[in-house]
Amino acid sequence: MPFSKLQERLQDIYEIETDYAVADFLVSDETVRNCLDSGASRVRETVYVSEQRDSLDITVYLHADVVRNLENADPESALHSGNLEDFCLATEGISHFLKLVWHGENERSVSLLDLELQAEIDKFVLTYLYLYEQLQSVNTRDLRRLLFDAVEFQPEPGTDEHQRYQDANHYAGKYCQALERIYMDCDDARHMLKELRRFYRLPLADKLRRINKLH
Questions:
Q1: 2 SS3 class
Q2: pLDDT for the residue numbered 110
Q3: What is the 3-state secondary structure (H, E, C) of 182-202?
Q4: What is the pLDDT of residues 40-96, one digit of tens each?
Q5: How far apart are the first and last CA of the chain?
Q6: Residue 36 CB: number of other CB atoms within 10 A?
Q7: Helix axes 160-182, 189-200, angle to 10 degrees
Q8: What does the alpha-carbon distance between residue 127 and residue 52 come to, in Å, rounded to a whole number?
Q9: Which pTM was predicted?
């Protein structure tokens, strides 16, 4: 699938603009990935960032199998069990990319937890929108359970990375449950977009407070 389409969808949702295209930063060559991180043999998606004095170097890695599957089974035409996992991996990488670029262009710092939290929300929201457009009906409770409950974390338990993924999953799950209850159950897309755009621009501490308030 054209990854520019996924980027455009996320930019439309959050009303953000950038001159940078994720396709220009995307690699699927494992040789390149090994040069960046030789210990990431099991990784199918990740974003590498190197901060210079006044710039960021960003590389978005997606395993070649992920890219190939999305090209052969384009989620724009039909999102299903055969491409959902890879769709979510691509969404996560593009979400990280946009978040880094948006914060950089607005001279704002961003934490790793904020990146992971936003990516988890983006996966739920984009999957919901694609399925709704294709099927005109989505069981949001089953979707939320699939994305937030039936998950395994690759980092070893007890590590900071494992805790970060757990926290992102926990808070994103609560937020998406609130989106489901307040907006999706009554097909209120206009106000949901307004909420999502406001939330995107909040500092992390305010995001967590917002989640607890809505939940």
A1: coil
A2: 94
A3: HCHHHCCHHHHHHHHHHHHCC
A4: 667 889 999 988 777 889 999 999 999 999 999 999 999 999 999 999 999 999 999
A5: 35
A6: 13
A7: 150
A8: 35
A9: 0.94
